[in-house]
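Q: I'm writing a short explainer about DNA-binding transcriptional regulator, LysR family for a general audience and would like to include a description of its predicted shape. Could you first generate the structure from this sequence?
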Amino acid sequence: MNLDHFVYFVELVQQNSFTKAAEKLFISQSTISKAIRTLEKEYDVELIDRTSVKFRLTSEGEIFYNSSLKIISSYKAETELLHSMLKSKRGILYLGIPPVTITAIYPILCQYRFLYPDITLRILEIGANRLYSLVKQGAIDMGVVIQPFMDMDFIQVPVMHSDAVLILPPDHKFVKHDTIRMSRLQHEKFLILANEYMIHDVIINSCKKAGFVPRIVGKSAQWDLLVEGVVNGQGVSILPRPIIEKFCSNRVKMVGLLGPEIPWIPTVIYHKNKFVISPMQLFLDMLQNK
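A: Of course. Here's the predicted structure. Afterward I'll give you a sentence or two in plain language.
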């Protein structure tokens, strides 16, 4: 079924002339003739009385004309409805965020909910590695990961720019430092986030770049448990600066890292072949305009 053929037929009937219909539609008369022949063949019927001197429809053509008007009208109505739905500020956004990251970017999520109260924001709190898999499968619309993120099949939009810092107990020998080189931590005991978080591998690789393999004495999926471990002298940790500044800067000492630094850049990702629905576009626009 070719909708254009129905449009040509309706215009032909309304103009009562192949010449006038062609002029109105800005196409050739032969194009209209071929379309009518195609319709007649497809529906096994004659639409035009070719024995008549003047333009006239057959009885079947009259029925076909009335049905064609309904088909075209229905198509236009459904198209307008579809366009409205796609551009409306309604719908559902499925967003995956690691529990550590959501603590830092929660104000952004609140802003989105405030700006678009008719959009349901469904948040899935899982580790970044699992999150990446779900976005790739299309199970969720978008996810938030931590740089570096190297998959070129994904669009990336940074949410914020910060760094990860060394977390020390108040009585640690390094507390008077504002910054410290990573190589000086080779004899420290480390408490780090669990394997499912991207920053887990980033920390280990950063230590290796500094010339040592970290001595990991504890892992957790909860950043606050790591902080408790540090406060109680179980080891040192490396965590995102925004989280420590917001919740526990009075309990631990933050020290910047050098050689190498560890950037902490939460980044929204979605597959480049993903159709960007209205809730997604509004979220992306909000990030880029903040």
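A: For your explainer, you could say: Residues 206 and 260 are 6 Å apart (CA to CA).
Q: Perfect, that's easy to follow.
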